[in-house]
Design a protein that fits this description.
With about 425 residues, the protein is α/β, with parallel strands linked by helices. The chain is built from twelve helices and 23 strands. The protein starts with a strand and ends in a 5-residue tail after the last helix. Bound molecules: pyridoxal-5'-phosphate.
């Protein structure tokens, strides 16, 4: 994404002045560079095409979804992962082809299973043995299922750790025999077709080792147990850059490494390579989005800290308080030198409502200025809440110098619409 100051000293995204956006549409607002979202999707496509393998790329709705986002996913020929009735509803309302939707989740309700079946989603990802019985009971036709494996592997950003970490609410454990039991159960059902297997090793992973080593383990397991599959889904978790020092997953080289490794593992093992799936979320939308806020109260505690407060907070930006996540901020309406370290705080009633603890900002920042928080495109709007009866922000897609509203700011009326009188 090209975020830079123009000759008037205003911060721009893809050439559009963010000051104008903030002034025209109000704050807080989340703004995406639409071209950047599409570029990320196309980069994954190109990288897989080069490998010559059959592949599918499925966008993880949970990172950010709305009707226009789903339409964009469809236009760029990605498939779609959903994990709830609400995400499936959103996808269907946007006109997404259900055949290309995959239903995930560790506790799908009976109702959700019925909804997924009725909607004829492409496949359901089995996450427990019980679920196999439920799907079998409700299915009227043959339904494709993919078994989510718990391979006993954890990925920590750039290392791969085989922890024997079987204590997870997700998937069927290979080591403890649940995975193989799942396969048997599916095969014993006339209505369930075992399309493939799935794993997901973690989030914000910078390297390829975890995915490759897990794929190796899974391919060996499939081979040992004589299990044939049409699909191996490697999950998501590709890293993005939040702050200096973070690494954006190198899509071209990374996918090349992963696909080459799979080709050679398959050769070694004598295993026919099935279709390879991935499920990126963060790496599609994360860096393409920023949040614009207006500065309000500035409080200096002599020799202690300076708090710059903005007009949103943990209701639209939970990741700092939830994960201690780090971000960078830029002053939108002036290109002044960032000569001071301050805390950017939200306006909600929690001490933990912090956006950035040690933010580098110009000392000239004052009430009425606008700030941009970078890399807020994933897990911000989708994690937003109405805490303190805050209204969820508006969302815009910027393209060719135009701002297109994709989600309106929540109205006050909407805050009480479900309250009984
Ligand atoms: C969260 C999740 C993803 C997407 O993860 P990102 O880190 O956003 O790429 C993909 N697959 C599964 C199963 C997930 O739980």
């Amino acid at each position: 994404m090209v975020i830079e100051y123009n000759n008037n000293g205003e911060l721009t995204m893809g050439g559009t002045s963010l000051k104008t956006v903030a002034q025209s549409f109000g704050t807080p607002t989340i703004v995406y560079d639409e071209t950047q979202i599409r570029t990320q999707m196309r980069r994954f496509h190109e990288a897989f095409k080069k490998s010559g393998l059959n592949y599918n790329i499925s966008y993880a709705s949970k990172a950010f979804t709305c009707l226009q986002m789903v339409k964009l996913v469809q236009e760029e020929a990605l498939e779609l992962d959903v994990v709830s009735e609400g995400e499936l509803y959103t996808a269907l309302e946007a006109g997404f082809d259900p055949q290309h939707i995959h239903f995930h989740g560790n506790n799908k309700t009976k109702h959700e299973i019925q909804y997924a079946l009725e909607s004829k989603v492409g496949y359901i990802v089995i996450d427990s043995l019980e679920e196999i019985d439920l799907i079998d009971r409700y299915a009227s036709d043959v339904v494709n299922v993919v078994i989510r494996l718990n391979p006993g592997v954890e990925a920590h950003t750039h290392e791969f750790i085989q922890t024997g970490q079987e204590d997870s609410k997700f998937g069927l454990s290979i080591k403890h025999g649940l995975a193989i039991e799942g396969v048997r159960k599916v095969k014993n059902s006339k209505r369930l077709n075992l399309k493939g297997v799935h794993f997901h090793v973690g989030s914000q992973i910078e390297g390829t080792e975890a995915m490759i080593e897990t794929a190796r383990l899974v391919i060996q397991w499939l081979k040992e147990n004589d299990i044939e599959v049409e699909l191996i889904n490697l999950g998501g978790g590709f890293s993005i850059k939040y702050v200096e020092g973070d690494v954006s997953f190198p899509i071209e080289d990374g996918i090349a490494e992963i696909t080459e490794a799979i080709i050679s593992i398959a050769k070694e093992t004598g295993f026919p390579i099935p279709e390879i799936g991935i499920e990126p979320g963060r790496s599609i939308v994360g860096e393409a989005g920023i949040t614009l806020y207006e500065v309000g109260t500035i409080k200096t505690i002599p020799n202690v800290n300076k708090y710059v407060s903005i007009d949103g907070g943990m209701s639209d930006h939970i990741r700092t308080s939830l994960y201690d996540a780090q971000y960078e901020a830029l002053l939108v309406n002036r290109n002044d030198q960032a000569d001071e370290t301050v805390t950017i705080a939200g306006k909600l009633c929690e001490s933990g409502d912090i956006i950035i603890k040690d933010a580098k900002l110009p000392s000239t920042v004052k009430r009425g200025d606008y700030l941009a928080i970078l890399s807020t495109g994933a897990y911000h709007y989708s994690m937003a809440s109405n805490y303190n009866q805050m209204q969820k922000p508006s969302v815009f897609f910027l393209k060719d110098g135009k701002a297109r509203e994709v989600i309106k700011r929540q109205s006050l009326r909407q805050l009480i619409i479900n309250d009984t009188k």
